[in-house]
Write a structure and sequence with these properties.
This protein is of the alpha/beta class and 132 residues long. 13% of the residues are buried. Strands 1, 2, 3, 4, 5 and 6 form a 6-stranded mixed sheet that branches. It has helices spanning 40-46, 102-112; strands spanning 13-20, 26-35, 73-79, 87-94, 98-100, 129-130.
Length: 132
């Protein structure tokens, strides 16, 4: 399930692309997924049933298939969503969902071991900017 909500609603899945600058600052691009057609990039990710701690090297993965064509987004300062939940992360959450099918959602949950989204955090004094 997505960790970000849109007007209070979750999407079935959200992918995070974490980037770290040489000075240690972090930026994360979030891409949400909605039910629809099979996503070939996710098929490559779910082809092998991984066990906890196991990894696989993917060659020729089409990252573009995991991102929408429309780059409009929400931007905010937040934190990582997994420990150590470091603060001062620049988030860019893409507005347009990408499609994936039900079997792919299930396969990703199976690999991860279930839902892994943390509860939605309060905005507090954070400002959310939006591309129009």
């Amino acid at each position: 399930m997505s960790e970000h909500t849109f007007k209070g609603k979750h999407f079935p899945m959200e992918a995070h692309f974490v980037h770290q600058a040489e000075d240690g600052t972090l930026a994360v691009i979030g891409s949400v997924f909605k039910p629809g057609k099979n996503n070939p990039a996710l098929s490559a990710l779910t082809a092998k049933k991984l066990k906890a701690g196991e990894s696989v090297t993917l060659k020729n993965l089409n990252i573009q298939a995991l991102l929408p064509k429309d780059s409009k987004s929400f931007q905010l300062k937040g934190s990582l969503t997994t420990p150590p939940c470091s603060e001062n992360v620049t988030w860019v959450v893409l507005k347009t969902p990408v499609q994936a099918d039900a079997a792919q959602f299930k396969a990703m949950r199976d690999i991860i071991g279930g839902e892994n989204n943390r509860p939605v955090q309060p905005l507090n004094d954070r400002e959310v900017n939006e591309d129009k």
